[in-house]
Amino acid sequence: MPRLAMNPELGEALRKVGVRGAPALATVIALADAAGELGDSNDPMARNFTEAGGQLGGQAAGAALGALVGLPLGPAGAWAGAGIGGWLGGGPGKQLAGGIYDLATGYKPLTAEDKARNELMANERTKMLLAEEAMRLRLADDMQRQQAMLDVQNAYNYQNSLNQQRLASSAATDARSAAVQQYLLGL
Length: 187
What we know:
- The protein is mainly α.
- The chain has helices spanning about 10-15, 20-35, 45-70, 75-105, 110-185.
């Protein structure tokens, strides 16, 4: 059996009542529970590690205290006391460690109101981006339409210029023909 780092008389008493697996079981449960804290995406990773350590320490202290309190009831009492103490000790340990982290770093966890406001701002930002994109598409469509109208107008203007040149050329030819006829008739 591993050496218990506590009062030798208490260690001997625990051995006598057969509480050998309680510390190991409490440790496994505490480690699994504390590891779950590392997945909290609402806080910085350093705060998650601090809270996990606080939860682990609180569960270990609660389990040890619970086992001591349940010890007079025998092995079942020690096991039950360790389980209940570990369960009750984790939350306060986590809160204490989180509070110490917040004091040391100046971190302020987001409240539900802050989260709602951030979500609303993100939604508004998304709406603004979508509206901006819609305006950009409308502007591109309008510019394309205006360019098409300008191309049509330029084609009309070109045709009108050609028609004006033909008319002018025809009028000049008619005037020359009339002048030649006048000249020939006048001779």
